[in-house]
Known about the structure:
single chain; 65 residues; mainly beta; two-stranded antiparallel sheet; 4 strands; globular
Amino acid sequence: xxxEKPLVDNEYLLIKVGxxxxxxxxxxxxxxxxxxxxxxxxxxxxxxxxxxxxxxLMAMLLRSS
Length: 65
């Protein structure tokens, strides 16, 4: 069986917004997101040595301050 090719293989900065119950996110512009509102994309992968699966990417509209 052929190994899966990663969607992206790059380094990204994790950004944390807020203090309590904060969101942590990374901007990954290379991934095409669903066009529907509140669309999510199921992913699996690894951050440093931490592997995850069954996670979802959610498109976000970031507003400048």
